[in-house]
Amino acid sequence: MAIPAHKYPPKGHGAPLRGLDATVRSTLFQGRFGRMFRFQPADFYEPDLVKLAQAMTASAEDKFTSETENDDEENFGIPAGYTYFGQFIDHDISFDPMPLRMKENDPDGLVDFRTPALDLDNLYGRGPDDQPYMFEPNGRKFRLGDRFLTGGEDSTNLTVDLPRFHERAIIGDKRNDENVIVSQLQGLFLRFHNYLADVHPTESFGHLQQRVRWHYQWLVVFDFLPRMVGQKMVNEILPHLHSHKSIHDDKPKLNFFKWKELPFMPVEFSVAAYRFGHSMVRPIYRLSALDLPNTAQTPGLKGRKVVFDKSPNEGLNGFRAFPSPWGIDWSLFFETSTNKLSPANTGPGRVQPSYKIDTSLVSPLAKLPEFSKPGTDEPIDEPGSNPPRPEVSMLALRNLMRGNKLCLPSGQSVARQMGIPVIPDAELFVGKANVGGLADNKSIATHPDLAAFKGKAPLWFYILAEAQHQWINEAKKMLGDDAKNTTPVHLGPVGGRIVAEVLIGLLVGDPGSFLNADSLFIPEFGNPAAVSVFDKFTMGDLSELLAKHVPARL
Length: 554
Description:
Elements: E1 33-34, H1 46-58, E2 74-79, H2 81-93, H3 100-105, H4 121-124, E3 148-151, E4 156-160, E5 164-165, E6 168-169, H5 180-199, H6 205-229, H7 231-237, H8 240-243, E7 265-266, H9 267-272, E8 284-285, E9 305-306, E10 353-355, H10 395-405, H11 411-418, E11 429-430, H12 435-440, E12 442-443, H13 459-475, H14 481-485, H15 493-508, H16 514-517, H17 539-547
Protein backbone atom coordinates (compact mmCIF):
# COMPACT_ATOMS: atom_id res chain seq x y z
CA MET A 1 0.00 0.00 0.00
CA ALA A 2 1.42 3.40 -0.95
CA ILE A 3 2.14 5.73 1.94
CA PRO A 4 0.38 9.09 1.52
CA ALA A 5 2.73 11.92 0.57
CA HIS A 6 2.14 13.79 3.82
CA LYS A 7 3.45 10.80 5.80
CA TYR A 8 6.94 11.15 4.37
CA PRO A 9 9.52 13.03 6.46
CA PRO A 10 10.57 16.51 5.33
CA LYS A 11 13.44 16.50 2.87
CA GLY A 12 15.08 19.87 3.09
CA HIS A 13 14.75 23.34 1.63
CA GLY A 14 11.16 24.31 0.96
CA ALA A 15 9.80 21.20 2.72
CA PRO A 16 7.45 21.59 5.72
CA LEU A 17 8.64 21.13 9.29
CA ARG A 18 7.28 18.25 11.32
CA GLY A 19 4.04 19.38 12.93
CA LEU A 20 3.77 22.56 10.88
CA ASP A 21 0.90 21.31 8.75
CA ALA A 22 -1.05 20.46 11.90
CA THR A 23 -1.05 24.01 13.22
CA VAL A 24 -4.50 24.52 14.70
CA ARG A 25 -6.70 27.54 14.08
CA SER A 26 -8.26 27.58 17.54
CA THR A 27 -8.12 30.96 19.29
CA LEU A 28 -7.36 29.16 22.57
CA PHE A 29 -4.89 26.38 21.79
CA GLN A 30 -1.16 27.04 21.40
CA GLY A 31 1.31 24.27 20.54
CA ARG A 32 4.75 23.95 19.03
CA PHE A 33 3.53 26.09 16.14
CA GLY A 34 0.97 28.82 16.59
CA ARG A 35 -0.46 32.05 15.22
CA MET A 36 0.18 35.71 15.90
CA PHE A 37 -2.89 36.92 14.01
CA ARG A 38 -6.25 35.17 14.08
CA PHE A 39 -8.86 35.99 11.49
CA GLN A 40 -10.41 34.63 8.33
CA PRO A 41 -7.74 33.10 6.10
CA ALA A 42 -7.15 34.39 2.59
CA ASP A 43 -8.15 31.35 0.56
CA PHE A 44 -6.83 31.07 -3.01
CA TYR A 45 -7.29 28.69 -5.91
CA GLU A 46 -4.06 26.94 -6.82
CA PRO A 47 -4.15 28.06 -10.49
CA ASP A 48 -4.12 31.68 -9.30
CA LEU A 49 -1.11 30.98 -7.09
CA VAL A 50 0.64 29.43 -10.10
CA LYS A 51 0.09 32.64 -12.04
CA LEU A 52 1.50 34.77 -9.23
CA ALA A 53 4.54 32.51 -8.82
CA GLN A 54 5.18 32.66 -12.55
CA ALA A 55 4.88 36.45 -12.51
CA MET A 56 7.43 36.60 -9.70
CA THR A 57 9.90 34.55 -11.74
CA ALA A 58 9.01 35.74 -15.26
CA SER A 59 11.36 38.70 -14.85
CA ALA A 60 14.11 36.52 -13.47
CA GLU A 61 16.03 35.90 -16.68
CA ASP A 62 19.31 36.62 -14.97
CA LYS A 63 22.06 38.53 -16.67
CA PHE A 64 25.54 37.89 -15.37
CA THR A 65 26.84 41.42 -14.83
CA SER A 66 30.59 41.90 -14.96
CA GLU A 67 32.32 42.34 -11.60
CA THR A 68 33.60 45.70 -12.83
CA GLU A 69 30.01 47.03 -12.89
CA ASN A 70 27.18 47.31 -10.39
CA ASP A 71 24.30 44.92 -10.95
CA ASP A 72 21.06 46.94 -10.89
CA GLU A 73 19.41 44.36 -8.59
CA GLU A 74 22.08 44.53 -5.89
CA ASN A 75 21.20 45.82 -2.41
CA PHE A 76 23.97 48.03 -1.06
CA GLY A 77 22.48 47.87 2.43
CA ILE A 78 22.99 44.12 2.96
CA PRO A 79 26.15 42.10 2.15
CA ALA A 80 25.49 38.74 0.51
CA GLY A 81 26.60 36.69 3.51
CA TYR A 82 23.58 37.73 5.56
CA THR A 83 21.28 35.83 3.18
CA TYR A 84 22.92 32.64 4.42
CA PHE A 85 23.38 33.75 8.02
CA GLY A 86 19.59 34.19 7.91
CA GLN A 87 19.26 30.62 6.64
CA PHE A 88 21.57 29.43 9.42
CA ILE A 89 19.33 31.18 11.99
CA ASP A 90 16.24 29.57 10.47
CA HIS A 91 17.76 26.12 10.82
CA ASP A 92 18.50 26.87 14.47
CA ILE A 93 15.03 27.92 15.53
CA SER A 94 13.31 25.13 13.58
CA PHE A 95 15.49 22.26 14.86
CA ASP A 96 13.70 18.91 15.17
CA PRO A 97 15.55 16.32 17.32
CA MET A 98 13.16 13.41 16.70
CA PRO A 99 14.62 10.22 15.15
CA LEU A 100 13.60 9.43 11.59
CA ARG A 101 11.37 6.49 12.59
CA MET A 102 9.36 8.69 14.96
CA LYS A 103 8.85 11.19 12.16
CA GLU A 104 7.48 8.45 9.92
CA ASN A 105 5.15 7.16 12.62
CA ASP A 106 4.03 10.58 13.86
CA PRO A 107 4.56 13.22 11.18
CA ASP A 108 2.09 15.66 12.70
CA GLY A 109 3.21 15.38 16.31
CA LEU A 110 3.30 18.62 18.30
CA VAL A 111 4.44 17.42 21.72
CA ASP A 112 8.03 16.24 21.51
CA PHE A 113 9.66 19.21 19.83
CA ARG A 114 12.20 21.34 21.62
CA THR A 115 11.02 24.88 22.29
CA PRO A 116 12.14 27.27 19.54
CA ALA A 117 15.17 29.17 20.81
CA LEU A 118 18.29 30.84 19.47
CA ASP A 119 20.44 28.21 21.20
CA LEU A 120 22.41 26.74 18.27
CA ASP A 121 20.80 23.30 18.28
CA ASN A 122 21.78 23.15 14.62
CA LEU A 123 25.42 23.40 15.72
CA TYR A 124 25.49 21.37 18.94
CA GLY A 125 22.86 18.77 18.16
CA ARG A 126 22.27 16.82 21.36
CA GLY A 127 25.79 17.46 22.65
CA PRO A 128 28.90 15.31 23.22
CA ASP A 129 27.21 12.91 25.64
CA ASP A 130 24.56 11.83 23.12
CA GLN A 131 26.37 12.47 19.82
CA PRO A 132 30.05 11.91 20.66
CA TYR A 133 30.96 11.28 17.01
CA MET A 134 30.56 15.03 16.35
CA PHE A 135 33.24 15.88 18.92
CA GLU A 136 36.88 15.19 19.72
CA PRO A 137 37.53 12.47 22.33
CA ASN A 138 37.86 14.96 25.21
CA GLY A 139 34.35 16.29 24.46
CA ARG A 140 35.41 19.96 24.53
CA LYS A 141 35.92 20.56 20.81
CA PHE A 142 34.13 19.74 17.58
CA ARG A 143 35.63 17.36 15.09
CA LEU A 144 36.52 19.14 11.88
CA GLY A 145 36.85 17.66 8.40
CA ASP A 146 40.01 16.13 7.03
CA ARG A 147 40.23 18.25 3.88
CA PHE A 148 41.45 21.82 3.48
CA LEU A 149 39.39 24.12 1.29
CA THR A 150 41.55 26.64 -0.50
CA GLY A 151 41.28 29.78 -2.59
CA GLY A 152 43.54 32.31 -4.25
CA GLU A 153 46.41 31.98 -6.66
CA ASP A 154 48.72 30.71 -3.92
CA SER A 155 46.17 28.05 -2.88
CA THR A 156 45.83 29.63 0.56
CA ASN A 157 44.10 27.42 3.12
CA LEU A 158 40.87 29.26 3.92
CA THR A 159 39.07 26.65 6.01
CA VAL A 160 38.44 22.94 6.38
CA ASP A 161 35.43 21.05 5.10
CA LEU A 162 32.84 19.65 7.47
CA PRO A 163 33.46 16.15 8.84
CA ARG A 164 31.83 13.67 6.47
CA PHE A 165 30.86 10.03 6.13
CA HIS A 166 30.20 8.91 2.56
CA GLU A 167 30.14 12.63 1.69
CA ARG A 168 27.25 13.45 4.05
CA ALA A 169 28.15 15.98 6.73
CA ILE A 170 28.26 14.81 10.36
CA ILE A 171 26.65 17.88 11.90
CA GLY A 172 23.77 18.85 14.17
CA ASP A 173 21.36 19.67 11.33
CA LYS A 174 21.77 18.19 7.85
CA ARG A 175 20.16 21.28 6.27
CA ASN A 176 23.31 23.26 7.07
CA ASP A 177 25.04 21.41 4.27
CA GLU A 178 22.42 22.39 1.68
CA ASN A 179 24.71 24.69 -0.27
CA VAL A 180 28.38 25.61 -0.25
CA ILE A 181 27.84 28.91 1.57
CA VAL A 182 25.70 27.76 4.52
CA SER A 183 27.92 24.66 4.79
CA GLN A 184 31.05 26.72 5.32
CA LEU A 185 29.12 29.06 7.63
CA GLN A 186 28.41 26.00 9.79
CA GLY A 187 32.14 25.31 9.69
CA LEU A 188 32.85 28.90 10.76
CA PHE A 189 30.83 28.44 13.96
CA LEU A 190 32.40 25.02 14.61
CA ARG A 191 35.80 26.69 14.43
CA PHE A 192 34.64 29.56 16.65
CA HIS A 193 33.72 27.09 19.39
CA ASN A 194 37.10 25.37 19.03
CA TYR A 195 38.91 28.72 19.09
CA LEU A 196 37.15 29.66 22.33
CA ALA A 197 38.17 26.28 23.75
CA ASP A 198 41.80 27.24 23.10
CA VAL A 199 41.36 30.77 24.50
CA HIS A 200 39.69 29.38 27.66
CA PRO A 201 41.48 26.04 28.20
CA THR A 202 40.08 25.40 31.69
CA GLU A 203 36.42 25.98 30.88
CA SER A 204 33.95 23.14 30.61
CA PHE A 205 32.04 22.35 27.44
CA GLY A 206 28.89 23.90 28.92
CA HIS A 207 30.59 27.22 29.61
CA LEU A 208 32.12 27.29 26.13
CA GLN A 209 28.72 26.54 24.63
CA GLN A 210 27.21 29.47 26.53
CA ARG A 211 29.94 31.82 25.27
CA VAL A 212 29.31 30.80 21.67
CA ARG A 213 25.54 31.09 22.06
CA TRP A 214 25.71 34.57 23.55
CA HIS A 215 28.06 35.84 20.83
CA TYR A 216 25.70 34.35 18.25
CA GLN A 217 22.63 35.89 19.90
CA TRP A 218 24.43 39.24 19.95
CA LEU A 219 25.03 38.91 16.20
CA VAL A 220 21.32 38.24 15.62
CA VAL A 221 20.19 41.30 17.60
CA PHE A 222 22.91 43.82 16.79
CA ASP A 223 24.16 42.80 13.36
CA PHE A 224 21.57 40.76 11.45
CA LEU A 225 18.33 42.47 12.51
CA PRO A 226 19.43 46.10 11.98
CA ARG A 227 20.36 45.25 8.41
CA MET A 228 17.11 43.39 7.73
CA VAL A 229 14.56 45.60 9.50
CA GLY A 230 16.43 48.82 10.29
CA GLN A 231 17.96 49.94 13.57
CA LYS A 232 14.89 52.06 14.36
CA MET A 233 12.70 48.95 14.45
CA VAL A 234 15.13 47.14 16.77
CA ASN A 235 15.12 50.16 19.09
CA GLU A 236 11.31 50.22 19.14
CA ILE A 237 11.20 46.62 20.34
CA LEU A 238 14.19 46.97 22.68
CA PRO A 239 13.72 50.58 23.87
CA HIS A 240 16.51 50.30 26.47
CA LEU A 241 19.01 50.45 23.63
CA HIS A 242 17.87 53.99 22.86
CA SER A 243 17.04 55.18 26.37
CA HIS A 244 20.26 53.67 27.81
CA LYS A 245 18.28 52.36 30.78
CA SER A 246 18.34 48.81 32.07
CA ILE A 247 16.31 46.29 30.05
CA HIS A 248 14.43 45.64 33.33
CA ASP A 249 13.42 49.30 33.62
CA ASP A 250 12.67 49.85 29.93
CA LYS A 251 11.21 46.48 29.02
CA PRO A 252 10.93 44.95 25.51
CA LYS A 253 7.78 45.88 23.61
CA LEU A 254 6.33 42.82 21.94
CA ASN A 255 3.00 44.06 20.61
CA PHE A 256 2.01 41.01 18.56
CA PHE A 257 4.20 38.02 19.50
CA LYS A 258 2.74 36.85 22.81
CA TRP A 259 2.74 33.48 24.54
CA LYS A 260 1.48 32.01 27.82
CA GLU A 261 4.41 29.92 29.07
CA LEU A 262 7.09 29.42 26.42
CA PRO A 263 7.49 31.03 23.00
CA PHE A 264 6.03 29.14 20.06
CA MET A 265 6.92 29.33 16.37
CA PRO A 266 4.38 31.58 14.57
CA VAL A 267 3.36 30.30 11.16
CA GLU A 268 3.13 33.89 9.91
CA PHE A 269 6.87 34.10 10.58
CA SER A 270 8.03 30.67 9.41
CA VAL A 271 5.80 30.37 6.34
CA ALA A 272 5.68 33.99 5.19
CA ALA A 273 7.68 36.79 6.81
CA TYR A 274 10.99 35.00 7.29
CA ARG A 275 10.99 33.73 3.73
CA PHE A 276 11.90 37.24 2.60
CA GLY A 277 15.46 35.93 2.29
CA HIS A 278 14.52 33.99 -0.83
CA SER A 279 14.32 37.28 -2.73
CA MET A 280 17.85 38.21 -1.54
CA VAL A 281 19.53 35.23 -3.20
CA ARG A 282 21.98 36.19 -5.94
CA PRO A 283 22.11 34.06 -9.11
CA ILE A 284 25.93 33.85 -8.94
CA TYR A 285 28.65 34.19 -6.29
CA ARG A 286 32.40 34.55 -6.18
CA LEU A 287 33.84 32.35 -3.43
CA SER A 288 37.40 33.67 -3.31
CA ALA A 289 40.11 35.33 -5.38
CA LEU A 290 40.54 32.05 -7.25
CA ASP A 291 38.70 31.89 -10.57
CA LEU A 292 36.75 28.63 -10.57
CA PRO A 293 36.40 26.79 -13.91
CA ASN A 294 33.22 27.18 -15.93
CA THR A 295 33.02 23.88 -17.79
CA ALA A 296 29.57 24.72 -19.14
CA GLN A 297 31.03 27.80 -20.85
CA THR A 298 28.22 29.99 -19.50
CA PRO A 299 28.89 33.56 -20.69
CA GLY A 300 29.62 36.18 -18.06
CA LEU A 301 30.46 33.96 -15.07
CA LYS A 302 34.20 34.79 -15.07
CA GLY A 303 35.29 32.43 -12.29
CA ARG A 304 32.01 32.63 -10.34
CA LYS A 305 29.42 29.93 -9.70
CA VAL A 306 25.63 29.77 -10.10
CA VAL A 307 23.82 29.30 -6.79
CA PHE A 308 22.04 26.10 -7.97
CA ASP A 309 22.45 24.13 -11.18
CA LYS A 310 21.30 20.78 -12.53
CA SER A 311 25.01 19.97 -12.92
CA PRO A 312 26.35 20.06 -9.33
CA ASN A 313 29.84 21.30 -10.16
CA GLU A 314 28.38 24.24 -12.08
CA GLY A 315 26.29 25.27 -9.06
CA LEU A 316 26.85 25.63 -5.33
CA ASN A 317 24.64 22.60 -4.64
CA GLY A 318 25.30 20.94 -1.29
CA PHE A 319 25.07 17.58 0.49
CA ARG A 320 28.48 16.46 -0.77
CA ALA A 321 32.21 16.93 -0.30
CA PHE A 322 33.08 20.12 -2.14
CA PRO A 323 35.99 20.50 -4.55
CA SER A 324 39.11 21.59 -2.63
CA PRO A 325 39.44 25.00 -4.37
CA TRP A 326 35.93 26.01 -3.24
CA GLY A 327 36.99 27.59 0.04
CA ILE A 328 35.15 30.81 0.91
CA ASP A 329 36.91 34.09 1.61
CA TRP A 330 34.36 35.66 3.96
CA SER A 331 35.64 39.19 3.23
CA LEU A 332 33.73 38.84 -0.05
CA PHE A 333 30.49 38.14 1.87
CA PHE A 334 30.70 40.30 5.03
CA GLU A 335 32.13 43.73 5.70
CA THR A 336 35.52 43.60 7.45
CA SER A 337 37.87 46.27 8.75
CA THR A 338 39.51 46.54 5.34
CA ASN A 339 36.66 45.75 2.94
CA LYS A 340 33.38 47.67 2.95
CA LEU A 341 30.17 47.34 0.95
CA SER A 342 29.88 50.26 -1.46
CA PRO A 343 28.80 50.91 -5.05
CA ALA A 344 32.23 52.49 -5.50
CA ASN A 345 33.97 49.17 -4.81
CA THR A 346 34.03 46.90 -7.83
CA GLY A 347 36.12 43.99 -9.06
CA PRO A 348 36.71 40.44 -7.77
CA GLY A 349 37.81 41.63 -4.32
CA ARG A 350 34.67 43.58 -3.43
CA VAL A 351 32.04 42.69 -0.83
CA GLN A 352 29.21 41.15 -2.86
CA PRO A 353 25.81 42.66 -2.07
CA SER A 354 22.70 40.58 -1.63
CA TYR A 355 19.88 41.13 -4.09
CA LYS A 356 17.15 43.61 -3.15
CA ILE A 357 14.14 42.47 -1.16
CA ASP A 358 11.45 42.61 -3.84
CA THR A 359 8.81 40.49 -5.58
CA SER A 360 11.24 38.80 -7.95
CA LEU A 361 13.21 35.58 -7.39
CA VAL A 362 16.26 34.66 -9.48
CA SER A 363 15.94 31.98 -12.12
CA PRO A 364 17.93 29.19 -10.35
CA LEU A 365 15.15 29.17 -7.72
CA ALA A 366 12.55 28.39 -10.38
CA LYS A 367 13.80 24.81 -10.75
CA LEU A 368 15.29 23.57 -7.50
CA PRO A 369 17.65 20.58 -8.02
CA GLU A 370 16.37 19.03 -4.79
CA PHE A 371 12.98 18.41 -6.41
CA SER A 372 14.31 17.60 -9.90
CA LYS A 373 15.69 14.45 -11.46
CA PRO A 374 19.51 14.37 -11.26
CA GLY A 375 21.14 16.25 -14.11
CA THR A 376 17.83 17.59 -15.48
CA ASP A 377 15.24 20.30 -14.93
CA GLU A 378 12.46 17.69 -14.95
CA PRO A 379 10.71 17.41 -11.56
CA ILE A 380 10.68 14.13 -9.68
CA ASP A 381 7.40 12.50 -8.69
CA GLU A 382 6.05 13.44 -5.29
CA PRO A 383 6.80 10.51 -2.93
CA GLY A 384 3.83 8.21 -2.46
CA SER A 385 1.58 10.00 -4.94
CA ASN A 386 -0.84 7.67 -6.71
CA PRO A 387 -1.32 8.35 -9.54
CA PRO A 388 2.13 9.94 -9.81
CA ARG A 389 2.23 13.72 -9.75
CA PRO A 390 5.31 15.92 -10.13
CA GLU A 391 6.93 17.75 -7.25
CA VAL A 392 6.72 21.54 -7.27
CA SER A 393 10.26 22.67 -8.01
CA MET A 394 9.53 26.42 -8.23
CA LEU A 395 10.37 27.97 -4.87
CA ALA A 396 7.92 30.89 -5.21
CA LEU A 397 5.05 28.47 -5.81
CA ARG A 398 6.09 26.25 -2.90
CA ASN A 399 5.99 29.28 -0.60
CA LEU A 400 2.59 30.45 -1.85
CA MET A 401 1.05 26.98 -1.67
CA ARG A 402 2.38 26.40 1.84
CA GLY A 403 0.88 29.68 3.06
CA ASN A 404 -2.45 28.79 1.47
CA LYS A 405 -2.47 25.30 2.97
CA LEU A 406 -1.81 26.72 6.42
CA CYS A 407 -4.65 29.22 6.02
CA LEU A 408 -2.58 32.34 6.49
CA PRO A 409 -4.40 35.68 6.49
CA SER A 410 -3.76 38.21 3.74
CA GLY A 411 -1.07 40.84 4.07
CA GLN A 412 -3.75 43.52 4.14
CA SER A 413 -5.53 41.83 7.07
CA VAL A 414 -2.30 41.62 9.06
CA ALA A 415 -1.48 45.28 8.33
CA ARG A 416 -4.92 46.34 9.58
CA GLN A 417 -4.57 44.40 12.81
CA MET A 418 -1.13 45.94 13.34
CA GLY A 419 -2.59 49.41 12.77
CA ILE A 420 -0.36 50.01 9.73
CA PRO A 421 -1.82 51.74 6.65
CA VAL A 422 -2.63 49.20 3.94
CA ILE A 423 -0.75 49.62 0.67
CA PRO A 424 -3.23 50.12 -2.21
CA ASP A 425 -3.42 47.36 -4.82
CA ALA A 426 -2.17 49.82 -7.45
CA GLU A 427 1.10 50.10 -5.48
CA LEU A 428 1.75 46.38 -4.91
CA PHE A 429 4.06 45.66 -7.84
CA VAL A 430 5.38 42.38 -9.21
CA GLY A 431 8.96 42.35 -10.48
CA LYS A 432 12.43 43.69 -9.83
CA ALA A 433 13.31 46.72 -7.72
CA ASN A 434 15.39 48.55 -10.30
CA VAL A 435 15.02 51.36 -12.82
CA GLY A 436 13.64 48.96 -15.42
CA GLY A 437 11.05 47.77 -12.92
CA LEU A 438 9.98 51.32 -12.14
CA ALA A 439 8.96 51.66 -15.77
CA ASP A 440 7.68 48.18 -16.59
CA ASN A 441 6.39 46.40 -13.46
CA LYS A 442 2.63 45.87 -13.21
CA SER A 443 0.68 46.00 -9.98
CA ILE A 444 -1.84 43.39 -8.87
CA ALA A 445 -4.47 45.97 -9.85
CA THR A 446 -3.30 46.13 -13.47
CA HIS A 447 -1.67 42.74 -14.12
CA PRO A 448 -4.06 40.74 -16.34
CA ASP A 449 -3.47 37.45 -14.48
CA LEU A 450 -3.53 38.64 -10.86
CA ALA A 451 -7.05 40.00 -10.30
CA ALA A 452 -7.67 37.29 -7.67
CA PHE A 453 -5.27 39.04 -5.30
CA LYS A 454 -6.90 42.47 -5.25
CA GLY A 455 -7.50 43.43 -1.64
CA LYS A 456 -6.13 40.14 -0.27
CA ALA A 457 -2.54 39.50 -1.33
CA PRO A 458 -0.77 36.42 0.12
CA LEU A 459 1.16 37.45 3.22
CA TRP A 460 4.58 36.40 1.84
CA PHE A 461 4.02 38.37 -1.36
CA TYR A 462 2.69 41.39 0.54
CA ILE A 463 5.76 41.54 2.78
CA LEU A 464 8.08 41.48 -0.25
CA ALA A 465 5.94 44.07 -2.05
CA GLU A 466 5.95 46.24 1.08
CA ALA A 467 9.76 46.36 1.10
CA GLN A 468 9.71 47.12 -2.61
CA HIS A 469 7.15 49.87 -2.00
CA GLN A 470 9.59 51.54 0.40
CA TRP A 471 12.38 51.27 -2.15
CA ILE A 472 10.20 52.82 -4.88
CA ASN A 473 9.38 55.79 -2.68
CA GLU A 474 13.05 56.37 -1.86
CA ALA A 475 14.37 55.67 -5.35
CA LYS A 476 12.03 58.21 -6.93
CA LYS A 477 13.71 60.92 -4.84
CA MET A 478 17.12 60.10 -6.36
CA LEU A 479 18.57 61.74 -9.43
CA GLY A 480 19.95 59.44 -12.11
CA ASP A 481 19.60 55.73 -12.76
CA ASP A 482 22.71 54.75 -10.80
CA ALA A 483 21.49 56.54 -7.68
CA LYS A 484 18.08 54.88 -7.98
CA ASN A 485 19.51 51.38 -8.53
CA THR A 486 21.93 51.65 -5.62
CA THR A 487 19.30 52.84 -3.12
CA PRO A 488 19.30 50.19 -0.35
CA VAL A 489 16.19 48.47 0.97
CA HIS A 490 15.14 46.54 4.07
CA LEU A 491 11.85 45.07 5.30
CA GLY A 492 8.87 47.36 5.79
CA PRO A 493 6.71 47.92 8.90
CA VAL A 494 4.63 44.72 8.63
CA GLY A 495 7.36 42.28 7.61
CA GLY A 496 10.04 43.95 9.71
CA ARG A 497 7.89 43.96 12.84
CA ILE A 498 7.02 40.27 12.53
CA VAL A 499 10.61 39.21 11.90
CA ALA A 500 12.11 41.38 14.63
CA GLU A 501 9.46 40.60 17.27
CA VAL A 502 9.80 36.85 16.78
CA LEU A 503 13.61 36.72 16.84
CA ILE A 504 13.85 39.11 19.81
CA GLY A 505 10.86 37.42 21.46
CA LEU A 506 12.59 34.04 21.34
CA LEU A 507 15.44 35.60 23.34
CA VAL A 508 13.09 37.40 25.74
CA GLY A 509 11.32 34.09 26.41
CA ASP A 510 14.56 32.14 26.96
CA PRO A 511 15.86 32.35 30.56
CA GLY A 512 19.31 31.36 29.32
CA SER A 513 19.67 34.06 26.67
CA PHE A 514 22.07 36.91 27.22
CA LEU A 515 19.13 39.35 27.45
CA ASN A 516 17.97 37.53 30.59
CA ALA A 517 21.04 35.85 32.08
CA ASP A 518 23.46 38.75 31.51
CA SER A 519 21.88 41.85 29.99
CA LEU A 520 25.23 43.66 30.30
CA PHE A 521 27.05 41.05 28.20
CA ILE A 522 29.59 42.45 25.74
CA PRO A 523 31.39 40.21 23.19
CA GLU A 524 35.04 39.57 23.99
CA PHE A 525 36.02 40.10 20.36
CA GLY A 526 35.31 42.69 17.70
CA ASN A 527 35.71 46.45 18.11
CA PRO A 528 35.60 47.40 21.82
CA ALA A 529 36.09 51.09 20.96
CA ALA A 530 32.94 51.25 18.80
CA VAL A 531 30.64 54.08 19.84
CA SER A 532 27.45 52.26 18.85
CA VAL A 533 26.56 48.89 20.34
CA PHE A 534 25.57 47.83 16.81
CA ASP A 535 29.20 48.11 15.66
CA LYS A 536 30.94 46.27 18.49
CA PHE A 537 30.83 42.76 17.02
CA THR A 538 29.68 41.71 13.56
CA MET A 539 29.84 38.69 11.29
CA GLY A 540 32.74 40.44 9.56
CA ASP A 541 34.58 40.62 12.90
CA LEU A 542 33.92 36.92 13.51
CA SER A 543 35.14 35.88 10.07
CA GLU A 544 38.18 38.17 10.31
CA LEU A 545 39.09 36.69 13.69
CA LEU A 546 38.93 33.12 12.42
CA ALA A 547 40.71 33.91 9.14
CA LYS A 548 43.82 34.28 11.30
CA HIS A 549 43.23 30.91 12.94
CA VAL A 550 42.67 28.34 10.20
CA PRO A 551 43.68 25.01 11.78
CA ALA A 552 47.34 24.32 11.00
CA ARG A 553 46.80 20.58 11.30
CA LEU A 554 43.89 18.23 10.84
